[in-house]
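Here we describe the complex-level prediction in full. Unlike the single-chain runs in Section 2.1, the three entities below were treated as one system.
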Amino acid sequence: MSTAGATIGWWGVPLAVLAGAIRVSTPYLLVSLGECITEKSGRINLGLEGVLIMGAMAGYATAFATGSPWAGVLAAGLVGAVFGLLHGLLCSLKRVNDIAIGISIMLLGTGLAFFLGKPFVQPQAPMLSSISFGFWSDSTQIQSALQINPLFILGAVLAFALHFAFRHTRLGLQVRIVGDSEDAARALGYPVLPTRIVATVVGGFLAGVGGAFLSLYYPGSWNEGLSSGQGIIAVALVIFARWEPLRCLWASLLFGGASALGPALQAMGVSSGYYLFNAAPYALTLGILIASWTPNRALSGAPGELSLVRQ
Amino acid sequence: MSKTKFSSSRRTVIKSAGAAAIYAAFGPLAFRDAQAASKLTVGVIYVGPRDDFGYNQAQAQAAGILKKMPSLNVVDEEKVPETIAVQKTMEAMIEQDGAKLIFATSFGYFDPHVLKMAAKYPDVRFAHCGGLWTAGKHPKNVGSFFGYIDECQYLNGVVAAHASKTKKLGFIAAKPIPQVLRNINAFTLGAQSVDPAFTTRVIFTGDWSLPVKEAEAANSLIDQGCDVLTCHVDGPKVIVETAEKRGVYSCGYHANQAALAPKGYLTGAEWDWATPYKLLVDAALTGKPMINFLRGGLKEGFVKMSPYGPAVSAKAKKVADADKAKMVKGDFVIFKGPIKDNAGKTVIAAGTSLKQQDPILEQMNYLVAGVIGKA
Amino acid sequence: MLTKRLDRWLPLMESVGIPIAALLLAMLIFAIFVAIIGQSPATVFYLLYQGGFGSAFAWQNSLLRAAPLILTGLAVAIPAQAGMVIIGGEGALALGALAGAVAGVALSGLPPHGVQAGILFAGMLGGGVWIGLSGWLRHYRGVNETISSLLLSYIGIALLNHFVEGPLKDPASLNKPSTRPIGDVNMIGNLPGMEVHYGLLFGALFALVTWIALRFTTIGFSLRIVGGNPRAAQMAGLRVGWWVVGAAAMGGAAAGMAGAIEVAAVQGAANASVLAGYGYAGILVAFIARQNPLAVIPVAILLGGINAAGGILQRRLDMPDATVLVLQGIAFVVIIASETLSGRLRVWRSTPAPVKPAIPATGASV
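The structure predicted for the assembly as a whole is:
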């Protein structure tokens, strides 16, 4: 057994926030990027919370059964894609409300995951490994904080890639036009419904992978209390990020880092009002929203066909 | 391990498939009524999932033992919130299943829910886990049972102190309520019995099951140099696993989590609810009056310790076993004055020994000196 | 003559018939699921019926569980009339419970009816301010109300926990940190001849009054304009901000009232037990009810019934609690998807249909 290195005192707080930003943010990042693609195409999938939970369960179960955590990640993504497909197809029917379908899918995903996940609460599945970026430091704390999971790196790269794709590629343009105006898309010959369905499937895939991160890496366990609303918050973060993939990355990092603040302060003995510290991510996000949005700028970047923000 | 898991789940499926066939043949109600006529029907209610690898699972295991008793017919319900829902669940067990004894296993069920149902159904017995039944104030068909698991937490502390090199321990808890504070204090006092220099850092997560926050808390404590972690949350799995991953020791809670941390798991505080369950069932079967106030520790077999892990030294085992032997004999006092809280105030005066049964301990609202954090 | 009469009934047949047909289809899918996991669908459905609606006891059980859902459903449905998607009912409920409990203690000594009225009013005020804030932020700061209500919800829950375990904690509450009890005399009792508390009636009345106001006064019309086209509303002389904040606040008041009723009819004090997910379930109720305040009532009862029935499945068949979640998921996916059929059954009609339904089918997205 190795012992912890020298004590770091108050440096533990910024370190925890940094480490938390990386560890806690990944599911937010993956889900919000997926939802960003879906919403850019003009649909909102509010059911990603259920997809995330289903992905967490399916990923854990697959990793346990096959012995390979990456097989688990893939399975989680595929299960997520199936749920995305369900959402995408049903919402293509006339008069079907995407928000309402999303909420129903949230229930369905959660219910199925809890139902089918019972036998997997106790066994230990193999975990995803991480890459050590802290080798340069003697401090075990820094080494631990810089244990970075490949899925985070993947998410960060994806954020930049999407940022580029939406601006500079044909496919990105297609998604954006379909999301902005059905009429314009039709006039330009873009297939509206197939584009949206594919965008929702991709969104579901990423949300499933986000769930696998929870169950197979951090906190790395499957049980019914695993998600505390990460899927819902991630959907909200997309609006916060004004449908910009890069801003999704910053928003997720901010949210993850703020989540680590409460525990880190308590580890230093600051424990009065811990409920309020624990609410820091929500308060901070709201504060930034209020400070940065003005009535005129509110909907800049919003896809025109998005039911949630149509005015 | 994986093998047993799969076979047990298969058995459940086969069992329920068989049950379904019987129901299809006889109709569900006829089946139930025929059974209920000759047997005592017992209802068990859990606040969380039956298989959370923690608090609720410990209760469900005891219910599982009752289910094997031929004289009983056991019905149970999981994830029942502490709202009108639990009142209706109790009533449904009484009205629809004929339950005469109900185990309500979450603390929040007691007031007002159990009390209200007990007044409405005076001939049904209500056994509540964790409550403080008070003569004259509470109905006679209600009883509260609980275990002195702080004895195990004291022993956890003794073992932890022998393993720790930094003399800093970490404790992750849900809420600063008396039951939790008593565990934190006992853990700390156990460690300080080995070396008074020991301190315990506490993190309250705010709720009973928040895996991500629990993992963050574990990491923060380890970053601050804590090299033994224990906890009081509903499912300790994440904390024990995080400690193992970071290469520090852990002491378990609720159930045996040794398999999750083969290197760093020292020992753990476990419930053995089958003991009080059986006592309460026996009283109901033989028509003896309801046991209104039922408590027990290591001596009575309400709680037990996990077997020692490989990292526990011979010396640690010897000291802990000696303390345990005294507890089993009933002449060990954890809360013996003088004890100061961590603000410097004397909370138990010199010369005062608060025995486990003392109800004043169930109102604990302080953290002892050496605990870093605020109650 | 006959076709004319049929025409008059077709919309009703559609709005009742399609959901029922959808429910039947959902039951078929659920039956297949049940069969796959090795249970008898017939037994499961029989027990679901028994547990939810098969006896007077079961009905009262379902109605009790429906009571808070009516109000949290309104918390979503009322702001939806003005085009808002509010998902922060849980936090408004938390603050309603807190405010109600504080008022209950502060007013103790008054006649019980006065105390009860004070509790309900305080609860409505607490919840109303919270969601009203979301409306205010939307109109005056341009902050999306869905995200702000969600964030405010988490903050509201944190505030409830903080006050219940901190400044407002009753020292006697020990292991279940709570505010001081409002006292048995001040508790809201049961409806005459039933074991269902008055909260059900309050919720139903709230829904009914809302429906009447929306349908038979200019309020509904104004809200629809505000929600549909704020600029046109402004030009028509409507004070858009006032309507937006007002609709949000009324929704919040409904959720806050649900919290206050939890305190005054069930818990007797505010504590974390009031956070049982009613606020989240309300989102579902409202969307299934297509944001129609009157339809919120039967949907809430259906959901309450399924929840009540979940217990009997656990007790008789050892099925896990998640079984009812699966059933609800299937049922609501199919019911929502079936909305695509509405309007298509009118192929037989002889005269052109009236174009405008009273409440937009998907109020939020108009």
